[in-house]
Structures are given as structure tokens and as C-alpha cells.
Write a structure and sequence with these properties.
With 316 residues, this protein is mainly beta. It has a single domain, classed as Jelly Rolls (Sandwich). It contains no helices and 18 strands. Strands 3, 5, 6, 8, 14, 15, 16 and 18 form an eight-stranded antiparallel beta sheet that branches. An eight-stranded antiparallel beta sheet has the order 4-7-17-9-10-11-12-13, with no helix packed on it. A two-stranded antiparallel sheet has the order 1-2.
Length: 316
């Protein structure tokens, strides 16, 4: 089952997340960790960029976006209520003026397993978006291969997945239910449209969204949250041993193994795409959205190891 919107195109019970664990925990059976991670070794994220596991770190304190490979739309650094430090990233959307904005960061040679941790806050009047934060894998000869492939089945030379809120045609309260929205070779087709729209993976399982009950995860508005997700590529072209997973405030809310992401081992996760995208003619959320809404990002870490929530600089 898949959600019928392109990659680039109940309020009854929200999940209450437990407090952050004091130590990183390994789940039984070799499952992924929860709670504290790499970030606890670098209080306040100070020095985390130098860790050999870290591919990229951005706290927006330099008042410059020069570290990013591409910037589009109303994307800016602001001093208004960052999660930490003096600055954060602000991306608004304005109906009739823009479709939001984005930043792209190329991750050098990339890696087979990549985690991205970031802090996010939605404006208090927020409704819904179309697409959000995405990791992409591209072949070495074409770093744009995974872009512009909405509706197409990946051929194994690229893949991608994004952590984003799902509006459920207005059934979910804003900003929507968290899920992973993935493009990969074994994805399911939309039988009505005969198109390969991204397949959705919810905390309750693949394709089980707003009707799945109490495991639904809907983030709050006007409050910072720590989001993290990972992609792990399959080891050999014909083996479905890859996975993806997502965390909210250090709580593992979804783990999805058994995925065949690629048919070439040189296809690495090599791109971070920070999107706040919607409001165009193909956006299915447009009839449910207000004329303007804003999202803020802070303290981004991309790593080959689980990062976990940022530890206060005063805690050691």
C-alpha cells in the first residue's frame, strides 16, 4: 500500500514519548539503539563535527549557508527562538508567492549507512506540507540521479527516503502523522494510477497510517522536537537486508528491515535534502492549508552512527 503523492512533488490519541534514557540502549535481537547516542560524547554538540563518524554538522551559528551545495526559496538564518545557541534555520511557505524552500548538502563519497538527527519546530498555526527532510542515494557518475523521479520505479541505481508528517487528507491533526516516505526497487505500485508513488512506512508498519490507532505519532506545534532517521543499504544487489528507522526525542518509533534499496554497491547515501515543500498545483494539501506557514530547523548532524538528542553543554 502506498500514499498517493509524489516525492517532489483522531486527534483522539497522540503518542506520549518517554523521557530520554540516561544511556544508549541496544534493543534485544540486535535492533537499533534508543536514548543517548553519539551526541552524549559531545555536550552541546561541541566538537562533534570532528568525530570520524560525522559526515556533516550544521548549527547555523555562522550566519552563513555556504556549507550547503544548493539553496532555493525563502530560506534564511534567524535569531528568533533557536533551539540552542543564537541562530537557527527558518523556511516559510507563502501561497501564490513560493512553494517553500530547500537546502541540499552533498555528503562527499557517501556511506552505506547514514543517520541524520535534527531539531524541528512547526509554527503554531501550521497546517500541512507536501514533503520534508530526505536522504538520497545516487551513483558516483550522477549525483542528481534520485531527483525528479516521482511516479517512477527506481532501477537500483538510486534510492531515497524522507521523514515527514502525513496529512491523511485532513484526517490527521496538523502537522500530520510521522512516517518514512521511500522510493526503492521493490516498492509497490498505485494500481489506480499505474504510478510508483513513494511507499509510506508508519510506526505501525508499512502502509498502515491514520487508521492504525494509538501508535500514531503526531508532533506538537510551536515546540522543538528532536527527529532522527537512518537508511542502511543492502549488502549485495540481490539481498533484501537493508533497513530504515526513525526516532523522536530519542525514542525509536519505527524500524523497517528487509529492504532491497539498490542493485549496485557503489550507490551510497550521499545527499541530505532539507525541504519545506508544498503550495504548488500538484500539492494535495493545498485545500487544507493556510496562506502562510513556517518551519524552523536547528542542530543537524549527519553520521554513520546513531546520534541521539543533543546533550546540554552543562551536563557531562
Amino acid at each position: 500500500m502506498q500514499r498517493k503523492i509524489a516525492l517532489l512533488p483522531l486527534l483522539s490519541l497522540l503518542l506520549t514519548l518517554p523521557a530520554l534514557a540516561d544511556v544508549q540502549k541496544e534493543s534485544p535481537g540486535g535492533r537499533l539503539p534508543e536514548g543517548s547516542g553519539l551526541a552524549t560524547e559531545y555536550p552541546g554538540d561541541q566538537g562533534i563535527a570532528k568525530d570520524p563518524n560525522v559526515l556533516f554538522h550544521e548549527d547555523f551559528e555562522r550566519d552563513s549557508l555556504d556549507a550547503w551545495g544548493e539553496k532555493k526559496g525563502p530560506v534564511s538564518i534567524t535569531t528568533a527562538a533557536p533551539y540552542s545557541g543564537a541562530r537557527c534555520l527558518e523556511i516559510p511557505m507563502h501561497r501564490g508567492k513560493d512553494t517553500g524552500g530547500h537546502l541540499i548538502k552533498w555528503l562527499s563519497q557517501g556511506a552505506d549507512t547514514v543517520y541524520v538527527r535534527f531539531y524541528v519546530k512547526f509554527s503554531k498555526d501550521y497546517q500541512y506540507d507536501h514533503h520534508f527532510v530526505t536522504l538520497l542515494a545516487n551513483p558516483p557518475e550522477d549525483r542528481w540521479r534520485a531527483f525528479g523521479k516521482a511516479g517512477l520505479k527506481p532501477d537500483g541505481s538510486y534510492f531515497g527516503s524522507g521523514m515527514e508528517p502525513w496529512f491523511a487528507w485532513g484526517k490527521n491533526p496538523p502537522p500530520g502523522e510521522i512516517n518514512l516516505y521511500a522510493y526503492y526497487p521493490d516498492m509497490e505500485i498505485d494500481p489506480k494510477m499505474n504510478k510508483y508513488w513513494g511507499n509510506a512506512f508508519f510506526p505501525t508498519g508499512p502502509g498502515k497510517g491514520e487508521a492504525a490507532g494509538s501508535k500514531r505519532v503526531v508532533p506538537p506545534l510551536d515546540r522543538w522536537q528532536c527527529w532522527e532517521f537512518m537508511l542502511q543499504a543492502n549488502t549485495v544487489p540481490d539481498k533484501a537486508d537493508g533497513k530504515q528507522a526513525m526516532w523522536v526525542d530519542g525514542k525509536l518509533v519505527g524500524e523497517f528491515p528487509g529492504l532491497r534499496w539498490r542493485t549496485r554497491n557503489d550507490v551510497k547515501v550521499n545527499c541530505l535534502w532539507i525541504q519545506h515543500y508544498g503550495y504548488d498545483d500538484s500539492d494535495p494539501t493545498r485545500q487544507y492549508s493556510k496562506d502562510q506557514q513556517t518551519v524552523w530547523f536547528d542542530d543537524i548532524v549527519v553520521s554513520t552512527r546513531y546520534v541521539g538528542p543533543r546533550l546540554s553543554a552543562s551536563k557531562r
